[in-house]
Amino acid sequence: MTIVLVEIYLYGMNMRSEIDTTFDFRSDTPPGKDPDAFSSTLRRYHKLLWSKPLPNGVVLELFETTAQVYLHHHSEIGEFFLSSDSVVPSFTREPKIAHIIEQIPVDELAAFNTIGYTIGGMMVFPGNRIGHKMTINGARGFHPRIKDRFDLTVECIRRHYVNENSPLRETLERYADFFGLFGDFCGYVEFFLLQDMVAEDFSKVDFFMPFDGFKTSPLPASREAYLAYKQHAVDFVEARNRRILEFCREKV
C-alpha cells in the first residue's frame, strides 16, 4: 500500500491529509449506498486534489460545508456545484453483454471493480441541473453511444473545446462556464491529471476500444473485446493513480 502525506496551501491555511491511491471508496460507504455520494474519504480526496490554481492562476477552492451540495465554489469567477462520478464502468450489470460477462472469472471482475473505485477512477463534474435537463453524469450514463465510458466522455469534452459535434454536445454546452475555467482541452486534462488518456500533444484521445466516431454501440461485442477494454481501463486508472501520487509529492 502506498500512502503519501499531502500538504496543500489554500488562502493562507495549510491542509494536510493522506492520499491513498489503493483505497476502495466502497469500504467507507454504508451498505447499499453509492460511494460517489456517501464515501467521506472520496469527498475529502476530491476537495484536496482539485482545490488548486486554475490555468489563469485563480484558486478553485472547494467547500464541503454547503448544505445539500457535494462540493461548492463561489467567487468572482462564478458559482459551481460539483458532484463525484466513478468514471470507469466494468459493465458487470449491463444486460446487453451479460453473456460476455459470465465468461469472465469472478475474481477478475472483482479486481476490475476494486481498482475502478480508487481515486484514479473518479472525477468531479457539475452536479446542478440546468433547465431541468440531465447533468453530465446522467447524460453520459444514459446516452446509447457513450454508456458511461470515460474515454468517450473525454472525447466529447475534447470536441467541446474545438466546437465539434458529439453525442454530449448539448449537455456540455449547458456547462460551458465550468469548462471555460480551464481555458482549453490541454488545461482541462492537466488540471484533472488525465494526461494518460490523451496523446502527448493533446490532439486526440487514447481510446479503450477501437473508435468509430460514435457510430456503433460502445459496449464490447465479445469476450476478447471486453478483456481488451478492461486492460486499457485498468492501465489508465493505474497510470492516473501514479500521476496523482506524483502530484501529491510535489505539494509536500
Question: How would you briefly describe this protein structure?
Answer:
This protein has 252 residues and is of the alpha+beta class. Helices cover 38% and strands 14% of the residues. A 3-stranded antiparallel sheet has the order 3-4-5, covered by helices on one side.
Give a topology summary.
Elements: E1 3-10, E2 13-20, H1 35-38, H2 40-50, E3 71-75, E4 78-86, H3 98-101, H4 106-116, E5 122-126, H5 136-142, H6 150-161, H7 169-174, H8 176-180, H9 185-191, H10 223-251
Antiparallel strand pairs: 1-2, 3-4, 4-5
Distance between the termini: 19 Å
For the record, the count of structural domains works out to 1
Cα gyration radius (Å) = 18 Å
Strand order of the largest sheet: 3-4-5
Largest sheet: 3 strands, antiparallel
Q: What structural class is derived from the secondary structure elements? A: alpha+beta
Order of helices and strands: EEHHEEHHEHHHHHH
Could you say which overall geometry the principal axes of the C-alpha atoms support?
Answer: globular
Q: Helical residue percent?
A: 25-40%
How many DSSP H or I helices?
Answer: 10
Number of strands: 5
The stretches of 5 or more residues where confidence is low (pLDDT under 50) are 1-16
Report the average pLDDT across residues: 93
Estimate what percentage of residues fall within beta strands: 5-15%
